[in-house]
Amino acid sequence: MEAHRPGFDALLEEYGRQHATRGNRVCHAFGITLIVFGILALLQAVRLAGPWTAAEVLILAAGVFYVWRDPVLGIATTGAAVLLDLAARAIGDWRVGAAAFACGWVFQAIGHAVYEKRSPAFLRNLVHLLVGPAFMVNEALRLRPAPPSRPQGP
Predict the structure, then answer these.
(1) Do the beta carbons of residue 29 and residue 110 sit within 8 Å?
(2) Of these four, 16, 27, 49, 68, which has the most CB atoms within 10 Å of its CB?
């Protein structure tokens, strides 16, 4: 039995083709990290029961998606989200989260406008908003094979 879902391979490959230049990948490494941190910091303000907030609900829901698609990459991606959640809790200021969120999107826009010269993948397929973090975790940890052709740009 395969440890990952074939459809996820296609999503990661498509995402990789839309983010082929080194400059865009660097911008996305910063941008996606800031966006995820920002969302989690903002969701810290939505208290649920005890120590739990809406941020943990989001991590749980996304974690189920990631682990279902690829257990190893899913655990790593969820682990990265947990670390960002802990950072958001430590800072404890939704305004920092809002600033990080906005700054992250600036990095994304620069990556696509300056380096990639194409529109973001999520404009064609909203699921790429979830694929992006997993793609970046895989770029950092190399848990899955790289897509077959990877053009190297500026």
Answers:
(1) no
(2) 27
